[in-house]
Amino acid sequence: MAASYPDDFKCPISLEIMSDPVILSSGHTFDRSSIQRWLDAGHRTCPITQLPLPENPSLIPNHALRSLISNFNPVSLSKPFLPHPPPQTLISILISPSASLDSKLDCLNQLARVSKRDSVMRRKLTESGAVSAVLKCVGSDDPTLQEKALSLLLNLSLDDDNKVGLVAEGAIGLTVAALQARSPDCRAVAATMLTSLAVVEVNKATIGAYPYAIRSLVGILRYGNNREQKEAATALYAICSYPGNRVRTVECGAVPILLEIANSGLDRAVEVLGLLAKCREGREEMQRFHGSMEILGRVLRNGAPRGVQYALLTLISLCCHSERACVEARREGVLGICMTLIDDDNEKIRANAAKLIHILRGNNA
């Protein structure tokens, strides 16, 4: 089965399909378990470039690639291969005023199929001027054409070299507009597109400063379906790793919505809260929300490992800056939960649980 997936979906170390793709500081993506084993063995170089790494290398989740892998259907690749027209021919149809909607949709489907599994084809497409043609379709009033174009654009953004170029050609504005499209699927893909663009550090500030980008994502959190909420939270997590975007996100009313979603079981919402708790405005909003400590305590008890990790980080930020937060945390039994977490298999959970215990006991003295 793995042979039918694009090579970009496979870990360069294990050559298996990645279940938890993360980006190393060298810019290359690996499966978390594989690169962690490499680092645990004492290596401090990138397995691909052999360039030196920091003493404690960060592993940044590649949410966009994970989403593409999870939504990929390898069965479609088992169909007989049919020759497709040259990319330039397909692009010409896309930009032709006389081309029918069906012909444009067919072009986008063909381009998406070849670009998803072929990095060489993605490079050829960008060099052939495909981006401007696809962006015109993203700006279409037809929801199906818009969604197909966004999916193709997402494929092109898989290559980091393309991300800055896509932004330069106006991808952010059209993608943000698509966040308000009629189609839920279109809105979800648009959020994933922003996540992909935000992998490049300079794009995070650009996206955050763009009018209505963060506000639209928060709107999807409030009113979207489960898929939309997950993709919007993932995009906010990517964008808010840039500190300047955290206050903007708080001002758009994200904190109470994220807490409510976290309470319903979406751990990705807790990850965003962990970042927002690093700014004063975020902490103040969390303390104003009635039941925030109860929700975070529930995540500690029942959440997935990543949700638990970020709930601990959120609580550490809150309790470091507020005696009231410490009192509420102790009242919700957080100290007792942390005592059970110091024996957890996850090293980060153990370390953060121990840190929170120290804070709560120190304030209790």
How would you explain this protein's 3D organization?
- The longest helix is centred in the last third of the chain and has 18 residues, at 347-364.
- A hairpin with a 5-residue loop joins strand 1 (21-23) and strand 2.
- 66% of the residues lie in helices and 2% in strands.
- The chain has 365 residues and is mainly alpha-helical.
- It has a three-stranded antiparallel beta sheet.
- The termini are far apart.
- It has helices at residues 32-40, 63-71, 87-95, 101-116, 119-127, 130-138, 143-156, 160-168, 171-178, 184-197, 201-209, 213-223, 226-240, 244-251, 254-263, 267-276, 280-288, 292-302, 305-321, 323-331, 334-341, 347-364; strands at residues 21-23, 29-31, 60-61.
- The relative contact order is 0.06.
- Among the domains are: 10-74, Zinc/RING finger domain, C3HC4 (zinc finger) (Herpes Virus-1), CATH 3.30.40.10; 87-252, Leucine-rich Repeat Variant, CATH 1.25.10.
- GO terms for molecular function: ubiquitin protein ligase activity.
- It is an enzyme of class 2 (transferase).
- Its EC number is 2.3.2.27.
- Pfam families: ARM_PUB, U-box.
- It catalyses: S-ubiquitinyl-[E2 ubiquitin-conjugating enzyme]-L-cysteine + [acceptor protein]-L-lysine = [E2 ubiquitin-conjugating enzyme]-L-cysteine + N(6)-ubiquitinyl-[acceptor protein]-L-lysine.
